[in-house]
Amino acid sequence: MSQQALPFRLLGAADLDAFRIALERPVARWAAEWFSSAKNIAFEIVDAVPGELAEAEDWSVFCDPAGCGLAWRLPERRRREFVEALLGAPLPPGGDASPMIEALLAECLQDLGARLLAIADAAAAPERRNGGRLDSTWLGYGAGAACALPDTASLCPDLVFSGELVERIVARPRPAGTAGKADLVQRENAIGNRRARVEVVLGTAELTLADLANVSSGDVIRLQSRFREPLLVRSQEGVPLFSANLGAADASKAIQIVGRAS
After folding, report:
1. Is pLDDT above 90 for 36?
2. pTM higher than 0.85, yes or no?
3. CA distances in angstroms from 3 to 6, 26, 74, 76, 148, listed in the order given
4. Could you tell me the CA-to-CA distances from 198 to 236, 255, 262 in Å, in that order?
5. Span 13-170: which CATH code?
6. What is the CATH architecture of 198-260?
7. Residue 183, pLDDT above cutoff 50
8. Nearest to 168 by CA among 190, 185, 146
9. Which sign, positive or negative, has the C-alpha torsion 87, 92, 95, 99?
């Protein structure tokens, strides 16, 4: 029972929209200060890291000890164009960027990271690690990470935001008029304002009485259900209603309905 239970996060459409809106202003200011003329830095925010990016081994990670941070990479096909936009001048044909230019490129992207960590109120000093694959806690179902996929003509690097960074930014108070839709919308019918209590069944486990007597703080109990198996949502009377994924929303536990209970 020495394993560690990691945070589990899910992102809904409203969370992704709030995260995208929160990024718009700092990213625009970063681009205006680093590039001599207006550049296309458009990107799409998605709630998972595509397989080809997860396998890449050229990520630079800018992260604090609490796991709040982001990672970036510039594929070779976009790297030259990015450097030329940064310098406001073309590079020699076939020539590689000098160490000084590489340092300027790293400083530019680290500045973007610092701006985003600032709006997430990251207190600890972040560190930068160059080269390598993304940590497993940034990838996969329940990681809560978000990925910025640039448009085909965009200069924006590939970006991955850790679940901790996304959670902190999404949890910030939203300006009036930007709140997302509620997860459940009331039906305008005879049900009215009547309330019903539902239960979410996380899973079951069998322990011996001796194990139960020795359970202490920090122990991890393995449940019989598989990790990716949806949870059962049922009525207070035990009637199965829905299947759902477990996650978090606005610093609270939450579930995301994935279908009717079979």
Report:
1. no
2. no
3. 9, 38, 36, 40, 32
4. 5, 12, 17
5. 3.40.1550.10
6. Roll (2.30)
7. no
8. 146
9. negative
CATH 3.40.1550.10 residue ranges of the chain are 13-170
Return residue ranges of the chain for CATH 2.30.330.10: 198-260
- Average pLDDT for 85-114: 82
CA distances from 18 to 32, 112, 130, 149, 155 (A): 22, 19, 29, 17, 23
Residue pair 62/71 in contact (Cβ under 8 Å)? The answer is yes
Burial code of 206-244, b = ≥16 C-beta within 10 A, e = fewer? eeeeeeeeeeeeeeeeeeeeeeeebbbbbeeeeeeebbb
Q: Where are the alpha helices (DSSP H) in 50-175?
A: 51-54, 76-87, 99-119, 163-170
